[in-house]
Amino acid sequence: MISALGLLKERRFLPLFVTQFLGAFNDNLFKTAMVLFATYQVFNDPALEQHFNALATGLAILPFFLLSALSGQLADTFDKSRIIRIVKTVEIFIMVFGAAGLLAAKAGYTSVGIGMMLGAVLMLGTHSTFFGPIKYAILPQHLQDEEVLGGTGLVEAATYLSILAGTILAGYVAVEVAAGLVVIVALIGWFAGRMVPPAPRMGPKLKINYNPFTSSWRLISATMHIPRLFLAICAISFFWTIGSVLIIIFPALVKNVLTADEQVASLTIAVFSVGVAIGSVAINAMLKGKVSARYSPVAVLAMAVCVVAFSFEARGFTPAPTGTLYGVGDFLTHPQSLVVMATLLAIAITGGIFVVPLYAFLTTTVTKDQTARTVAANNVVNSGAMTIGSIAVIVITGLGVTPENMLLLVAAMCVASAWLAQKLHRACD
Question: CA-CA distance, 429 to 424, in Å (whole number)?
Fold first, then answer.
């Protein structure tokens, strides 16, 4: 068996790792550049900022809900490496369109630019829908059984490190530079995707159902009757609902509660990404390669405690003078900032420890010819849960609930996730 990090030397893993990293980096560079531009340069109202972020999040999630069943069927029917090459080709055209939207908005054509940017977000969601099942389902096909947890952890860590890189960069480069970079990275990702080894169909060819509603229902029905999959998918869905709420409220919370600029907003998301990456790698060492939910309940309960602490830290944070925002230097020298950032890092580490073993359950519980459809079923349920979370944020914001109070709702969802993870642990370990 090769160690988890040793997989990075293997052609059966490295090209997928690089392709996944570049895709997630590009996705987050574009989305973060768009959100920060809208939050700090277009809107000047906390409610409008959160509504825009919720709309963008909802558009990114919608394709997962409608098309995950189709993507899973295709991935279990055709060579997964061939689908990767097609998806990476389409990404180039999406990024050209999105970059044009950024430039149009910057040039003063705000309505047209925002419409194009949101359209690009919808298309990027579609892109991710077809790539998502493959990045996990291909692992059992290319890796040994005892390497799957380590490979899953590395893929998850790569996702969040790419979020880190894309988020930081978006906060520091001009909109025009971001527009050029997303096209260049898409081209590099296309070359990396061509290096992924073949991963042909493992079982019989499927009769593909193209109806998004009946195919989704049949896919979920065929998966959720397995107790460990049902519990894993429900726990992951709670986790991503939590994630969707945090993603929506964070930019507005940083601007209006921590009174900091877009570079600080970028930094806080980056810290969160580093934390999830640390947790994703650490759990493999803690479990020594065994797929188990042993640490998931306590991890997500610890996450809930940290979220509550973060809520109270935000309430007591000393704001910048009226009409000004803290820059990175001023924020980092603020006497309360280190505690805020350390708490945020702890939230992310515990989240990574919680979720990685659950994804490993998805790909090791079923046969290799069903893994993509299992991940796709998970994506359908996850996207539905995240959509509910996005709508809830809009409704709760409309009722006057502030971001720091909304964090308490996140903590309550962590408790529900812990209960599900504990049931999974008892059922399987």
Answer: 8
Question: Which H or E element spans position 234?
Answer: helix 227-256
Cα torsion 302, 305, 310, 316: sign: negative
Taking the C-alpha atoms of residue 163 and residue 176, their distance in angstroms, rounded to an integer, is: 20
| pLDDT above 90 (res 283) | no
Question: 115-127 as b/e, with b when 16 or more CB fall inside 10 Å?
Answer: ebbbebbbbbbbb
Cβ atoms of 246 and 134 within 8 Å: the answer is no
Contact by Cβ (8 Å): 378, 86 = no
Share of the chain above pLDDT 90, in %: 18
DSSP 337-356: HHHHHHHHHHHHHHHHHHHH
CB 358 within 8 A of CB 382: no
178-215 residue pLDDT tens: 999 999 999 999 999 998 888 887 767 777 888 877 87
CA-closest candidate to residue 355, choices 270, 266, 233, 172: 233
SS (H, E, C) 116-135: HHHHHHHHHHHHHHHHHHHH
Contact 361, 230 (CB under 8 A): no
Determine the Cα–Cα distance for residues 385 and 379; give it in Å rounded to an integer: 10
Tokens of residue 418, six digits: 């812990």
Domains of the chain (ranges, CATH numbers)? 5-200+210-428 (1.20.1250.20)
Q: What is the token pair recorded at 407?
A: 């964090």
What is the reported pLDDT for 5?
Answer: 63
Residue 166 binned pLDDT confidence (cut-offs 50, 70, 90)? confident
For residue 4, give the DSSP letter: T
- Phi/psi for 27 (5° steps) reads -55, -45
- Tell me how far CA of residue 112 lies from CA of 294, 356, 412, in angstroms: 50, 40, 39
Dihedral of CA atoms 81, 85, 86, 88 in degrees, nearest 10, equals: 130
- Encoding tokens for residue 263? 């570079």
| Burial (Cβ within 10 Å: 0-12, 13-18, ≥19) of residue 399 | exposed
* Residue 51 burial (CB count, 10 A): 18
User: Does residue 1 surpass a pLDDT of 50?
Assistant: no
